[in-house]
Amino acid sequence: MQLTDNVYVETAYEGANVGHVTTEQGIVMIETPQRPTDAVAWRTQMEGKGKLKYLIHTEGHGDHIAGGFFFDVSVVAHEKTRDAIVTADKKRILDAIAMMDPDGVSLISDYEFNVPVITFSERLILYLGNHTFHLINLPGHTEGQTAIFIPEEKVVFTGDNVNYQSPAFMHESVPLTWLQSLKKLGELDVDHIVPGHGEVCDRSYLGEWSEFIQEWIDAIRQAIGQGLSKEEAIEKMPLPSRYPMPPGNEEMTKMFRTMNISRLYDQLG
User: Among 20, 39, 206, 237, which has the highest number of CB atoms less than 10 A from its own CB?
Assistant: First the structure.
């Protein structure tokens, strides 16, 4: 959908949300579709709007970066996101793609990651035409998590630091810093927040999402205070009920439970 005069987003793809911004000097793309067939469709949608100049990633997880193979463009990301892409398990990502997109398997016979060639540690500004792209490291969902703020459009892409009414994956999170990063997002002059997953929202949602992250922190602290070991908590601890995993996928729910509790125990214990 067209979010503003120059910002286009897609929230219906299986995987992370994606977007692109048209400028006088070309297009800046943010994230990539995970499924090859979606990536090709998204690439076709951009054709005719200008030359693709940059691809920016908010993080290095497979659902955000897998489709980079289909875009012949320089990638920009946090230095830790680059490290994550360089060391990613290609077989695991390709196996996931094959399961979710059988029709796309023929498109990835010579698959390689599109590795970032421009990196930063804290902040970076890209200037393109009359637009500025402020890349801000806001650790939370991952340590290298990046917000892309486009002040001319009053839009920010947050990656999985914000998910709209959907679960929070915390397996690489820094939870206390995450809350601080959400406060910083709330200070940006934006009308639209493009989350990592779920529908586009605005700053009014940040309080609700912050409460959800706090609920996870409080639950783990309570388990630790009760003397539960990490293993006991994984087995017995009730999870925060807001935004649960969708029903019908017991294996994914079990993995989600184990990853989240284990990481938060390591961070908060």
Answer: 39
